[in-house]
Amino acid sequence: MKKGYVSIVLHSHMPFIRHPEIKDPMEEKWLFEAMNECYIPLINVYDGLINDKIKFKITMSITPPLMSMLEDDYINERYTDYLNKSIELTEKEIIRTKNNKELNKLSIFYNERFNKLMDTYKKYNCRLMNAFKKFDKLGCLEIITCSATHALLPLLSINPETIKAQLSTGVQHYIDVMGHNPTGIWLPECAYTYSLDSILKEYGIKYFIAESKAVLYASPRPRYGTAAPIATPNGVCAFGRDMDSSYQVWSDFMGYPGDFNYREFYRDIGYELPMDYISPYINSSGIRLDTGVKYYKITGKTDNKELYNRDIAMEKVKEHAAHFSACRNEQIGGLYSHMDKPPIITCPYDTELFGHWWFEGPDFIDAFIRKSSESSCDYELTTPKEYLCNNPVVQCSSPNPSSWGENSDYSVWINGSNQWIYRDLHRAEEVMVRLANTYKNPNDVQKRALNQAARELMLAESSDWPFIIKNNTTVNYAIKRINTHLDRFNTIYEEITKDTINIKKLSQIESLDNIFPNVNYKIYEK
């Protein structure tokens, strides 16, 4: 008899980085790397489990911007070129490394890997959502939604209509792609505040994933901590992040990904080989970028890295998956006798951890699921939706406002480096609400302009931009994205109110920011 449940929840997100107006934009490589290292490898894991008749349950959020890009013709054409170049590079590497047995073995490994990625990509007609929709229909994968552009919702609460617009658009885009309503949602950055539960209920959301402190500090205090969901006053359930399982994967000093036998992230031939050799495989402007071909293992806290050994890394994966499973068994066993319902250990992670930052991550997921299917295991894998179906009685408790960012608050997204964003955003939000309440019966051109204004506002609201600014990475790009979307919004606003809409210019903006084809500006009405 199983004593409890474990729920793995993977949050899959990319900001909308579609740039047909730019030759070889560097930012789109963020998506292509995630497709190569995370999404397709996970698809291969799921297919392998199904082929081996291993039953499993896993949850993934796929945010609307990511769904949109995975379905986009231009993006998929660019990705096909990118993957073909990766295959070409590894073919050259096999020749270049022929006199070094260990390096040559690794170059063959990468060539086989990239070719397998291409085979899987073509198998699903160059549309990864075809794979995810298949797993959703089979019932082994539950896909949940997110807000439209991953906006940090509590920071938009000064204009409640904007929160409704973000959630309404996110839910509708999910329906447009998946063909059915979502049950759950990943609140961007797991950020919750008191006003959200009534809006979530309005759009049919049954549950959300919460930071541990949202549940542990809820009022009244939950009887079982994060080992069971709680229900908000409006009946929307919150599943709190389990911190023990989180530390084992996330932690810099004790997490599995730091094992010295795993692949080193920061050593890539894109930075190390001569420019005349590597130039066709990096940015066309000559900026060196990751190619995904990395020959070294972490080794230790040293610059003298040793060559990666795939076989040893896979043995470590099995060892860590078995340890992770044993820890969940121990947790479940300790909780089971003290609860009047089966405990659930909720394990939420960024999907990009598994494969991008931790190269062996998808293999870990595979090994853990296989270990969890063994009869000696005290738990079953489940999804939050399935858990609620089997355990509908949930303690009512109001979650504590929080996020899974630093300090469990919102300070990553509003601080001295990025607080200027919100003055301009809130001004635009007020204008959008006013437009929606003014133009009740627009003509066709006005309606197009109003819908595009809504798109530009939502794209400017993405939590990615203040996050990038706070972490001092591609700061200029983030600032440019905010200002570009707000400039487009303001131009459209002026042309609507002055009845001077430039149709050619509007068409150009529509072709660039083509997200949410079915958006309706009236979602901003009071």
From TrEMBL:
The keyword Zinc does not apply. Residues 8-328 form the Glycoside hydrolase family 57 N-terminal domain. Keywords: Carbohydrate metabolism. Substrate binds at residues 241, 258, 404, 464. It holds the Pfam family Glyco_hydro_57. The active site is at residues 189, 350. Gene3D superfamilies: Families 57/38 glycoside transferase, middle domain, Glycoside hydrolase 38, N terminal domain. SUPFAM superfamilies: Families 57/38 glycoside transferase middle domain, Glycoside hydrolase/deacetylase. Residues 425-524 form the 1,4-alpha-glucan branching enzyme C-terminal domain. The keyword Secreted does not apply. One of its GO terms (molecular function) is 1,4-alpha-glucan branching enzyme activity. Belongs to the glycosyl hydrolase 57 family. This is 1,4-alpha-glucan branching enzyme.
